[in-house]
Amino acid sequence: MQKIKYGLIGASGRMGNEIIDVMNEKQNELVFKYDVDGEWQKELPEILIDFSLPSAFDTTIQYALSFNCPLVCGTTGLNGEQLIQLKNTSQKIAIVQSFNFSVGIQMLIKCAQMLTQNLTDWDIEISETHHRFKKDKPSGTAIMLKNAIEKEVNISSLRLGNIPGDHEISFGGLGEVISIKHSATSRRTFAEGAVKSAYFLLNKRNGFYSFQDVLFT
Amino acid sequence: MQKIKYGLIGASGRMGNEIIDVMNEKQNELVFKYDVDGEWQKELPEILIDFSLPSAFDTTIQYALSFNCPLVCGTTGLNGEQLIQLKNTSQKIAIVQSFNFSVGIQMLIKCAQMLTQNLTDWDIEISETHHRFKKDKPSGTAIMLKNAIEKEVNISSLRLGNIPGDHEISFGGLGEVISIKHSATSRRTFAEGAVKSAYFLLNKRNGFYSFQDVLFT
Amino acid sequence: MQKIKYGLIGASGRMGNEIIDVMNEKQNELVFKYDVDGEWQKELPEILIDFSLPSAFDTTIQYALSFNCPLVCGTTGLNGEQLIQLKNTSQKIAIVQSFNFSVGIQMLIKCAQMLTQNLTDWDIEISETHHRFKKDKPSGTAIMLKNAIEKEVNISSLRLGNIPGDHEISFGGLGEVISIKHSATSRRTFAEGAVKSAYFLLNKRNGFYSFQDVLFT
Amino acid sequence: MQKIKYGLIGASGRMGNEIIDVMNEKQNELVFKYDVDGEWQKELPEILIDFSLPSAFDTTIQYALSFNCPLVCGTTGLNGEQLIQLKNTSQKIAIVQSFNFSVGIQMLIKCAQMLTQNLTDWDIEISETHHRFKKDKPSGTAIMLKNAIEKEVNISSLRLGNIPGDHEISFGGLGEVISIKHSATSRRTFAEGAVKSAYFLLNKRNGFYSFQDVLFT
Known about the structure:
The structure is a homotetramer. By secondary structure, the first copy, chain A, is an alpha/beta fold. Chain A folds into two domains: 5-101 and 188-216, Rossmann fold, CATH 3.40.50.720; 103-183, Dihydrodipicolinate Reductase, domain 2. Chain A has seven helices and eleven strands. Chain A has helices spanning 14-25, 57-67, 80-89, 103-118, 140-149, 188-201, 211-216; strands spanning 5-9, 29-35, 38-41, 47-50, 71-73, 94-97, 123-130, 154-159, 166-173, 176-184, 207-209. In chain A, strands 3-2-1-4-5-6-11 form a seven-stranded mixed β-sheet, with helices on both faces. In chain A, strands 8-7-9-10 form a four-stranded mixed β-sheet, with helices on one face. In chain A, strand 4 (47-50), helix 2 (57-67) and strand 5 (71-73) form a beta-alpha-beta unit. In chain A, helix 1 (14-25) packs across helix 6 and helix 4 packs parallel to helix 5. The two termini of chain A are 19 Å apart. In chain A, 50% of the residues are buried. Chains in contact: A-B, A-C, A-D, B-C, B-D, C-D. The A-C interface holds A 102-105, 107-108, 110-111, 114-115, 118-119, 171, 173-190, 192, 215-216 and C 102-105, 107-108, 110-111, 114-115, 118-119, 171, 173-190, 192, 215-216. Strand 10 (176-184) of chain B pairs antiparallel with strand 10 of chain D.
């Protein structure tokens, strides 16, 4: 597999650390980083990965354009205006944007859509369990799942200990039940999704892509 | 095991049928029954089991007193006045009364109480899943479970297909989770609990007992 | 929905009873039956459903040919020769044959195949739980599931109480896990699958179909 | 809560780091450490915690005796002779020794024992799921669980991704199932158990204790 020289915005954050670990294992080289401690650069990156904060968004865009390289954008909490700006920027450089870089969640969604289409008269329930510190109820991913199946379904939210994130969707017919459950066991999974997106972008000049595009095209 | 001559009120109902099945397997003999089709009697019963309706309550009490035999009362929906009358009657005959004759649910409660006492700073969540036709939310058993642990905990209720009844209580600490789940796979379990209560009462002259007394004394 | 006049071979068996229940609810009429008690006929059936024993196989074929009507064949334990005979017969009449008429299991297989194709470097585990009386380990459905994903995976078999049948397939990556679980809550689900197959066959003159064909064409 | 001056053997290991984190949160002070990088000492510790290797066992004992302070010993892989030496040493200083400092696993065992005693004719199944790198099958904790209930039960072992460790014990009767599941979500839980043991030992002069003693006395 090709070795990549990459840049990282938000390098000192939790996700930043995970991404460095995954990139190291694949013998890719960090040549640029930017975070609360400032900027460090060794060479021009071939790709830029961003897991920072909405407040650093403008800086991210400027760096991506000045490097003229693809961008993986995983920063959460971006507003509508910033998303539009990102799409506009994708006319010049290739961008993958997602709020969830877990392969498994994308597969959960695909299974859920298939079951919803085939089991039309079955009941559907979504439930999610997260650590006690999570403030939003239900989780963004649960809402994303509900939107993906295009049904008005009940979402149950449980808050327990420090569970990274479980999502389950259950289908109940008269005589049988199918449940699909996704559990994140660490943040590493999100880092791997971001790295997969980086490889996906390597030979692309421009365009705006979702994480589903990365996985299924 | 001793062979019992028993009477059954509500003999033609769903629970009545299950009880007859369980009693037959133990080679006990039905010598009296009463239901919508009227009364049938062959001999004097040694014990009376009642799974009928609150409207038949007075009849049940009269039969129990006239037979002067112990009574297992599993009729749901009894009001406060009827429960008091039942307790008064227990001065003359031995009575087991419960709204849930499942051994497993009683064990679930005992485990939940032990965990609650030992894991004082863990989060607790209750969830229950029942068939789509169930009208009350949350289930009575979930409320019973919440009362048993004496904590203000969240109850999630899911409605799916024709699931007889699942109850789960989860405890989450920072670094680990324990969940206890009970699933009823058929009504038979309730019939077995009632029959166990019948054996428990055989040598008792009077007194008012719960299903927990049957199991743990 | 069209009212059907149907025949049933194995009418007095457990599955036979379930099928009569489901057909009654849809106001279809039983006009022919055959079982250990002999033959009963009122009219010529438009479709024949067979849940009997391999020993009755020849009789089933003769009836189907003499009625010149489609056949749903759910008898288990048929040998290779009988299956070939069934396929030959399908040149004259339309036939659906399956060892498992549960919609959910078919959906489980479809999801499992999709996940296997997309999560190529994830670990896979199959587990199944059945009642204590089940003699074969692992279950035929677990083997069917393993064959469907075309991978050498471990199957864990648990035997507990009177569980009708649970099947789970889990996929584990570094950082996340996806599990799909199917639970049968009653035999009714298999009856519904057979009835669905009957409707599928109504306008077909001949041909050999699987239950997957019924569901997805 | 009392502030403790503590010593740590194996300070630079994974468990060592977790213990420092938990102790820091409780504002306890590390005053002595020993690991592959050598010895560092600021003051005399009130308690010594050891999560190192069997090869450092003699050094640990010497330090504990020279400090004349209680010892929490969580090193795994100690042989029989070393365990006897540890017990002998406990005549002079108080010692807690365990191969598993998870509160939840101890509670799982207590629940499992209670259920085994009360549900004598139910089927029992143990299953455990761990990361793909785990070499032993079944896990030591699963064996410990089986020993604790003193029954010959089947253990199913699944290997998936990087799951830290799940253990489940299920009880199946005719009509109902109870399952208790423990999932470790991080090593932190073991660090907390070790710290709990440290507090337990603070006022003890000598004696040999298990982690169950810490939790339930």
